[in-house]
């Protein structure tokens, strides 16, 4: 496991002195990289980190994320606060079969069409794109919610049934943006967090999203009630 990258920029950076240069040869085994706010411009050398599961490269000057194509084991990718204006094509995203959390807020995305390539990401559960020009587009949330099928949370709110089922007008507690659906799943980074901390956080975020949905999705509530009814009927228990 390693907590950094191997670019020339980083080897010249003062923080690199904390690491043993002999570890450079083992980059294919890195599972966790975290470099935030270091003015980095490239992710080129990450393409050989084939075991990478958590990648945090926030608040840098990244413009191209295609080097991550070979990092097919990624579960969490945090690229917020960079200078990314376009995303790779659907082939790139379809290869990231394990990616569940993707933080892209505070970047330069301006076109909905480009952002919709994320629909090819088969396991994406939570996405952030607030503070990007595209988030100001009319229908931004509607388009993303109905393009990325596995998505359960966008920006600071869990997705409501009302956003998925057309012309379904629900009571206030189930409505889009209701306070019950609010969840800040991308809080400020903690200094010194470890790989284990990140994995535990991923599990917590996913669990919390599912919990919110279970209590605030009429569809899931009805399904749960029907399953309970059928079980009681099968066991001949009183209703």
Automatic annotation (TrEMBL):
Assigned keywords, A-Z: Leucine-rich repeat, Repeat
One Pfam family cited in the UniProt record for this chain: LRR_4
PROSITE patterns: IQ, LRR
Gene3D superfamilies: Ribonuclease Inhibitor
Keyword Repeat on entry: yes
Protein name from the UniProt record: Leucine rich repeats and IQ motif containing 3
Organism: Equus asinus (Donkey)
Gene: LRRIQ3
């Amino acid at each position: 496991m390693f907590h950094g990258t191997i670019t020339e920029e980083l080897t010249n950076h003062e923080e690199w002195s904390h690491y043993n240069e002999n570890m450079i040869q083992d980059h294919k085994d890195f599972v966790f990289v975290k470099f935030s706010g270091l003015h980095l411009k490239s992710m080129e050398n990450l393409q050989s980190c084939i075991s990478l599961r958590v990648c945090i490269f926030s608040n840098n000057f990244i413009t191209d994320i295609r080097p991550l194509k070979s990092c097919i084991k990624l579960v969490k990718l945090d690229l917020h606060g960079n200078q990314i204006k376009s995303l790779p094509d659907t082939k790139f995203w379809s290869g990231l079969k394990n990616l569940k959390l993707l933080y892209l807020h505070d970047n330069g995305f301006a076109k909905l069409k480009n952002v919709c390539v994320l629909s090819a990401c088969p396991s994406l559960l939570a996405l952030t794109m607030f503070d990007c020009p595209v988030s100001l587009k009319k229908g931004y949330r509607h388009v993303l919610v109905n393009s990325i099928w596995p998505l359960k949370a966008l920006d600071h709110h869990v997705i409501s049934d009302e956003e998925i089922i057309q012309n379904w007008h629900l009571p206030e507690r189930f409505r889009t943006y209701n306070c019950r659906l609010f969840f800040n799943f991308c809080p400020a980074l903690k200094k010194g967090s470890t790989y284990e901390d990140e994995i535990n956080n991923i599990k917590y975020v996913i669990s919390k999203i599912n919990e919110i949905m279970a209590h605030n999705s009429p569809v899931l509530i009805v399904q749960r009630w029907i399953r309970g009814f059928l079980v009681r009927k099968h066991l001949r228990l009183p209703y």
